[in-house]
Amino acid sequence: MLPSLMLRAKVGIRERLKRRGAYDLWRARLEQSREWSKYEVERFQLQQVQKIFRQASLIPYYRRIFSENRVDPNNFRSIDELAKLPTLSKAIIRRHREEFVVPHASIMKRQTSTSGSSGEPLTFPQSLDALQAEQAFIDFIWADAGFRPTARVAVFRGNVLGKRRSMQVGRMLYLSGYHLDPDDLIDHLRVLDAFQPDYIHAYPSVLTHLAAYAQQCELKPTCSPRAALCGSEATYEYQRELIKQVFGCRTLTWYGMSEQVALASECQDGTYFFWPQYSCVEFEKAECKGFEVVGTGWLNNSFPLIRYRTGDLVDGVQYDAMSDCGVVGTKVAHIVGREQEVVQLASGKTMPFNHIVCSMHGEAWKGVSQYQFVQNAPGAVDLYLVVPKSVDGPNRLLREFSKRTEGQLKVVVHRVDKLEEVGRAKARHFISNL
After folding, report:
1. Sheet-wide strand order for 166-169
2. Which residues, at least 6 apart from 154, have a Cβ–Cβ distance to it below 8 Å?
3. If phi over 0 gives left and psi between -120 and 50 gives alpha, with beta otherwise, what is residue 406?
């Protein structure tokens, strides 16, 4: 089969699988939860934590932690009892990796990872049920903008399409976020107009790059999406305005992560609401200003995470707040981090950087405990890696990086023992000294 046909088939199968099985169960549950009282929300959370505790009790690490802290996973009576357990970090997981073997987990699973703005990648298994449940929550959030699974969606994120600028698979149109030269951007606009998407799902930095070019060249798209669905990084106010001017639509944003321990979406008043049906979230006072998000998730039984430190900071915490659809939970005024990064090419032009790194999942990060990109000159970046000498981390990462940049950036790899902190909960995964 030709590579392009294989890619289409792979993408098509993945899209169909995401809305099968556990998807229907969670969508129905989420619709019912609109009517839940605070008591019903708390009861549901307790039931889910009890279930994940029973699964965790089969895992050597948690079995030891339960014993050391005198917690009976089979007699867990209150969410408040979570505080008896220590928090969990990526460093702890890496240090005790052999103790995180999960017996009797779902056989339908894949290896995924988190990289993002922390500079601390983590590879772990994710069950198919978790992937389907995640999509149910995302569709539930997108429904605020009228979204339905039958909608036509243009995806402008970190998808690798080889040499292709775009690819249509059924109701999905994928645009390459790595083809951003003027000719590429003109083609993206032409393809969008031909496809007429109902929604654009994008990294805000990448969509802004396209919108800015269209405005600069006085190119007015004829497509009329109902909303730009922007996740994975912060969306700035000027970007919302620019997207509205060019595409004539609102921007809907949300906050989540591969680890599936916290999910929040933007409310009409500009705050972010953490969905209590998704996970149990605590807010720990941070060393610097604000509170760190600590989450206990229950979607992924192939790799349970209990009191997991995300490294993300929030401020303006409001307990017993209400979402726009009437669910009782917690709001925050602002989520700190997930800043957009821009890299400079040899030509002097700039391009978004987050989607290049954050789209690399699974084996690319295997063995890498920390990383940081530093740019000191146009067209080149230094990649600092904390990785054992026995691990082939640099070569895997360079291959993935090359697929996305097509030689536009020269990468020099440096193996180091540790990275310096930069004065906040998360180390920066990219630093520009230009």
Report:
1. 166-169, 172-175, 153-156, 199-202, 227-230, 250-255, 264-266, 272-274, 328-332, 318-322
2. 172, 173, 174, 175, 192, 195, 197, 199, 200, 201, 202, 225
3. left
- What is the full DSSP assignment across 140-204? HHHGGGT--TTS-EEEESS---TT-SEEEETTEEEE-TT--SHHHHHHHHHHHHHH--SEEEE-H
Residues near 161 by Cβ (< 8 Å), separated by ≥ 6? 7, 167, 174, 176
Among 9-13, 149-153, 259-263, 264-268, the range scoring the smallest mean pLDDT is 9-13
The percent helix, strand, coil of the chain (3-state, each to 5) is 35, 25, 40
Q: pTM of the prediction? A: 0.87
Angle between helix axes 22-33 and 38-56 (nearest 10 degrees) is 150
Q: What is the token pair recorded at 41?
A: 């929300």
Q: What is the pLDDT of residue 420?
A: 67
Cα four-point dihedral sign 94, 279, 85, 105: negative
8 A C-beta contact, residue 127 and residue 106: yes
DSSP 88: B
Under a CB-based contact definition with an 8 Å cutoff, are residues 104 and 88 in contact? no
User: CA 390, CA 318: separation in Å to the nearest integer?
Assistant: 47
CA distances from 373 to 226, 376, 414 (A): 36, 10, 10
Exposed, middle or buried, 243 (CB in 10 Å: 0-12/13-18/19+)?
Answer: buried
Sequence-ordered alpha helix ranges (H) in 57-127: 60-68, 90-95
259, 229 Cβ separation under 8 angstroms: no
